[in-house]
Write a structure and sequence with these properties.
Oligomer: single chain
Low-confidence stretches: none
Strand order of the largest sheet: 1-3-2-5-6
CATH architecture: Roll
CATH topology: Hypothetical upf0131 protein ytfp
Mean pLDDT: 91
Structural class: alpha+beta
Radius of gyration: 19 Å
Number of helices: 8
Helix content: 25-40%
CATH class: Alpha Beta
CATH superfamily: Gamma-glutamyl cyclotransferase-like
Order of helices and strands: HEHEEHEEEEEHHHHEH
Length: 221
């Protein structure tokens, strides 16, 4: 058996999961990770309170979908990621393979999203295995758009928030923020301000709803 990259022996993934006392791959649900859910540290934060954090993560080639900016502000004061339909786009995304306990725990942490299966216009393929059925967390609030009406692509928070403040004097006045750091601090401390920002974006017409993503469809079996 060839040596593992970290110096130990290679073992089949199912054997590793059994050794941890966790469900094997056939008993897990694949879920595309858009944004912070692709971070191992974020998964630990979300899951450690509820269940053991043993989560296989793989890559998939996804066509027809990209990551954009959700039209709401999260409790920590950030503008989170949201899946955005993008015909012709092709990108590599992380897939989380969650067991039933983990799936319930992650669902509980996503009040601004609902889990649904991929729409027909989006395909996901595992390297060497072809297309497969999976879920994703679709945003409930739509995605933010630029002056041209096209969805804003996901960027780092400093860049994203600086751009949003520069594009909307009313957003700057509402938040009293001149910098991304001030925006985050003030939004984190005030739930009414977060809700006001969400309503302002609607009023300014910079929100694109995506019925194909947000329509309730049964999650993958």
């Amino acid at each position: 058996m060839p040596p593992h990259v970290f110096g130990g022996p290679e073992i089949p993934l199912d054997d590793a999961l059994r050794a941890c006392g966790r469900p094997v791959m056939a008993e897990r649900r694949p879920v595309l990770a858009i944004g912070s859910n692709a971070s191992p540290a974020q998964l630990v934060r979300k899951l450690a309170r509820w269940t053991r954090v043993v989560v296989p993560m793989t890559y998939a080639r996804v066509s027809g979908l990209t990551a954009g900016a959700s039209a709401h502000v999260s409790r920590p004061g950030y503008v989170p990621a949201v899946p955005v339909l993008s015909p012709g786009a092709s990108t590599e995304l992380i897939v989380l393979w969650l067991d039933d306990e983990q799936l319930t725990a992650v669902d509980r942490t996503e009040p601004n999203y609902h889990r649904t299966r991929l729409p027909a216009s989006v395909t996901a393929e595992l390297p060497g295995r072809g297309p497969f059925i999976c879920d994703l967390y679709a945003g409930r609030h739509g995605c933010l758009t630029g002056e041209d009406g096209a969805p804003i692509g996901l960027a780092g928070q400093p860049e994203l928030l600086t751009g949003l403040l520069a594009a909307s004097p009313r957003l700057a006045r509402l938040t009293g923020a001149r910098t991304a750091e001030e925006f985050v601090a003030r939004a984190r401390a005030d739930a009414r301000l977060r809700d006001g920002v969400r309503r302002l974006w609607r009023h300014e017409g910079v929100v694109l709803d995506q019925p194909e993503l947000t329509a309730r469809r049964p999650a993958a079996p």
